[in-house]
């Protein structure tokens, strides 16, 4: 990362809990380092609502192309089926990207290759977990196993199609219950709104086949928590984060939003702390 004398122009795709949170942070805390020059969401009402809240000028964009023309760095915060194409389009426009929807980037080596060819940076925040720096270091040696246990309140799984197909009635759950146990690919497929952290771990460790994901819920759970155990030639790492949920979206941890903010701050200020 290099220090920039001019303010970096930032465009945000997705004006929900994460995109909105980062936009507010830019307007309040990063004015010296960057400026918000574009907002885009397929629900344009979200754009206008956020723009008015920020007392911003005409930064609402009516297309992804218009947003990319207005910025140096795009923050992707949509977690949609189109995420990969959104990121791809940004690289084709030679824009740097902070990608929040990591689950959509699993097995996307073509995007990583495209970023290199176009001279772009693809930044993936740590998200709602701790220990990504250590996992990256551990990946240089041999990793034998990784266990990820995610615990979330019942309302974090509302309207989940996989649970509906399995006949799991969330309202009937009265005690701690395992909703899923399996590999990363299946976890992300069945819980795309809940388990971005599994993709982050897979990308950081380069050991996707060594990861077991367990997803649990209970009426007693009030926060989102992620517990990680990694065993390898380096020794053993155990981390646990007990996250406050975003007040705007119970599926999102507040720490995930803060992680996006910190990633942007470090990029704008030309600093990098940790592995």
UniProtKB/TrEMBL annotation:
One of its GO terms (biological process) is NAD+ biosynthetic process. Pathway: Cofactor biosynthesis; NAD(+) biosynthesis; iminoaspartate from L-aspartate (dehydrogenase route): step 1/1. Coiled coil: none annotated. Keywords: NAD, NADP, Oxidoreductase, Pyridine nucleotide biosynthesis. Pfam families: Asp_DH_C, NAD_binding_3. Belongs to the L-aspartate dehydrogenase family. This is L-aspartate dehydrogenase. It comes from Candidatus Sungbacteria bacterium RIFCSPHIGHO2_02_FULL_47_11. The lineage of its organism: Bacteria, Candidatus Sungiibacteriota.
């Amino acid at each position: 990362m290099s220090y920039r004398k001019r303010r970096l122009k930032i465009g945000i795709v997705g004006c929900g809990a994460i995109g909105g949170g980062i936009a507010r942070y830019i307007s309040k805390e990063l004015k010296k380092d960057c400026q918000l020059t574009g907002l885009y969401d397929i629900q344009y009402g979200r754009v206008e609502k956020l723009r008015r809240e920020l007392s911003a000028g005409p930064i609402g964009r009516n297309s992804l192309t218009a947003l990319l023309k207005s910025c140096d760095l795009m923050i992707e915060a949509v977690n949609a089926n189109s995420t990969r194409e959104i990121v791809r389009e940004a690289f084709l426009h030679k824009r740097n990207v902070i990608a929040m929807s990591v689950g959509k980037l699993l097995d996307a080596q073509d995007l990583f290759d495209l970023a290199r060819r176009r001279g772009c940076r693809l930044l993936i925040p740590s998200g709602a977990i701790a220990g990504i720096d250590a996992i990256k270091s551990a990946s240089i040696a041999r990793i034998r196993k990784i266990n990820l246990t995610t615990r979330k309140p019942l309302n974090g799984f509302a309207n989940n199609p996989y649970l509906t197909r399995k006949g799991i009635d969330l309202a009937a759950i009265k005690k701690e219950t395992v909703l899923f146990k399996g590999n990363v690919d299946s976890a992300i497929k069945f819980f795309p709104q809940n388990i971005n952290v599994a993709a982050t771990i897979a990308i950081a460790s380069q050991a996707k086949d060594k990861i077991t994901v367990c997803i649990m819920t209970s009426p007693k759970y009030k926060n989102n928590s992620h517990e990680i155990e990694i065993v390898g030639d380096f020794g053993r790492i155990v981390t646990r984060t007990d996250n406050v949920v975003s007040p705007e979206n119970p599926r999102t941890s507040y720490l995930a939003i803060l992680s996006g903010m910190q990633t942007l701050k470090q990029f704008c200020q030309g600093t990098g702390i940790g592995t």
